Known about the structure:
Number of strands: 5
Distance between the termini: 26 Å
CATH topology of the largest domain: Rossmann fold
Largest sheet: 5 strands, parallel
Shape: elongated
CATH class of the largest domain: Alpha Beta
Helix content: 40-55%
Number of domains: 2
Structural class: alpha/beta
CATH superfamily of the largest domain: Response regulator
Oligomer: single chain
Amino acid sequence: xxxxxxxxxxxxxxxxxxxxxxxxxxxxxxxxxxxxxxxxxxxxxxxxxxxxxxxxxxxxxxxxxxxxxxxxxxxxxxxxxxxxxxxxxxxxxxxxxxxxxxxxxxxxxxxxxxxxxxxxxxxxxxxxxxxxxxxxxxxxxxxxxxxxxxxxxxxxxxxxxxxxxxxxxxxxxxxxxxxxxxxxxxxxxxxxxxxxxxxxxxxxxx
Length: 206
């Protein structure tokens, strides 16, 4: 099996060296590059073709959250694991909204880091359970959506267009658009990616 290709992005050289040593202690991971700022990370994500990017938040240039957003748009194959010193649910929320697949605190054990990298490589989410629970408590519950709005949200999560959802549910396109507008207003989420992640967190989509 091919090794997991990892790109490290952190503005502290000592931290990057430590992370490299931890990750390369297992024969399942190969660190393909180290970078010290978010702007270069966006530029190099396509060239280096990493499977996983371990991303710090506070860096020169663009921060790790914005870098994650841009990388997910330009190199969607690369999964992002945010590694931060901030045990702050707002950072977790912003990282998830930007497209990060996981969030890990810098005081985590070595094995936790390795496990998190391998998990996001498999396409699994890896967020601290206590922070994820806090985020879900502050979000609008799914019960605010009508049964029809949940059906429309399911179609959105399945990647269906408004016209396809309309055909599936026997509705007009304008009605689907109205339902979608109401979903966005009720949940205060403003992109398809955010809607999908919300649905997954609340068990409304796989």
